[in-house]
Amino acid sequence: MSSNDPLRTVLDFFRAFEGNDVEEAIKFVADDLEYVNVPFGFEAGTVIGPDGMRAVLGPAFAGVVRNEFIVRTTATNGDTVFVERLDRHQLANGWAELPVNGVFTVRDGKITHWRDYFDMNVFATQMAALA
Fold this sequence. Notes:
Layout: H1 6-18, H2 22-26, E1 29-37, E2 46-48, H3 49-60, E3 66-77, E4 80-91, E5 94-107, E6 110-117, H4 120-130
Parallel strand pairs: 1-6
Antiparallel strand pairs: 1-2, 3-4, 4-5, 5-6
């Protein structure tokens, strides 16, 4: 498990996801996690806790063979971590790539808030091309 270093916690969280293991990644989130996929809207795109994260990401990654998270830029301010990254998802027909900015709050070695910002059109176009 990760230390109380917020950046290390977030990077370890992504490493757990590279094997497409949602259950392993959940070990890095707090029971009261607030996870927001901003392009879906703050109300519609928000889930709470590990069960909420599992309900969203389990089906989203069901067809994914492997994930890669290429971290381009990080910034940390206290317990807040900003991560600019390229999310790569290997599907049966090829790779989908999505530039994402994420903002995380980490307390006591657990992610309590996670907001992802990405262009929904880029995501939809890539998924359509791989269908």
